[in-house]
Design goal:
With 257 residues, this protein is an alpha/beta fold. Helices cover 21% and strands 30% of the residues. It has one domain. The strands form 2 sheets. Strands 1, 9, 10, 11, 12, 13, 14, 15, 16, 17 and 18 form an 11-stranded mixed β-sheet that branches.
């Protein structure tokens, strides 16, 4: 694999996307891509913006995960939920999105629904009362439970259609067949291993786009990652501190040039 150092998509992709982004200016640090006739923006804050639908899409927030760990006696730092909510607010302000879609695992566990976590989420929702919110239930949500009804978050089963796209949690769900509209998924927490010329390596969180199924990175900051094995023709986008860079998948690890 090699890394594209200019942080841009291919020339063909940009030329097609330029029509859309003439009306929806790209936000600095984001990367515009064309995928299945959809013009999307990938953000280094681990989110996808769909400008034509004024929609921001995230996956695997795992709110309350740190609280769940502390509940079981594991000493972990506090403040991760509020930090993630602040990052989400900044994304909504920058994109001016009117709808938020969550690709499953809103909560991490029932034990994480402590008073401090629920208060932070409740106050955040109150401050964004006009925002339309939809989520698909992930595997963690089945045990942790849905958000309170007063938060006005539409909760859907594993897969549902949305404006010509499929919204799902697990990319291997049986309903995602070739006839299904292209699907955005979560669950995997994808990453790739990047190697420097000196032989050192590190994991980079990524967006993974296949021909019909795309996997978003975990939005939650207190989450792990899982290495992926891209297939020929897939597109992989590594996330840096303030930009998204395409990684051309050809070998199990990439060399930073």
């Amino acid at each position: 694999m090699s890394v594209s150092g200019n942080g841009s998509a291919s020339a063909d992709s940009l030329s097609v996307a330029s029509v859309c982004y003439a009306y929806f200016p790209m936000i600095p640090g984001s990367l515009p891509i064309e995928w299945n006739d959809l013009s999307l923006e990938l953000h280094p804050q681990r989110a996808v913006h769909w400008p034509a639908r004024s929609t921001l899409i995230i996956a695997d927030a795992h709110f309350g995960k740190a609280a769940a760990f502390r509940h079981h006696g594991v000493p972990v730092p506090e403040g991760t939920t509020q930090a993630d909510l602040d990052r989400l607010t900044a994304l909504l302000v920058r994109t001016r999105a009117e709808r938020l879609v969550i690709l499953g695992d809103f909560f991490h566990a029932r034990a994480g629904r402590d008073d401090a976590t629920m208060l932070a989420l409740s106050q955040w929702r109150l401050g964004h009362a006009e925002l339309e919110m939809l989520m698909v239930r992930g595997n963690h949500d089945l045990h942790a439970g849905d958000p309170p009804s007063e938060w006005n978050i539409q909760c859907h089963p594993e897969c549902f259609p949305l404006d010509g796209m499929t919204i799902a949690h697990h990319p291997d769900h049986s309903s995602l067949i070739s006839a299904t509209p292209p699907a955005l998924c979560g669950h995997v927490h994808p990453c790739v291993v990047l190697r420097d010329r000196d032989g050192s390596s590190f994991r980079a969180t990524v967006f993974h786009f296949g021909p019909r199924i795309a996997i978003l990175p975990a939005f939650g900051s207190f989450t792990g990652t899982h290495p992926i094995s891209p297939r020929r023709g897939d597109r992989v986008f590594a996330i840096g501190p303030d930009q998204v860079v395409e990684v051309h998948a050809r070998r199990p690890a990439a060399t930073v040039r």
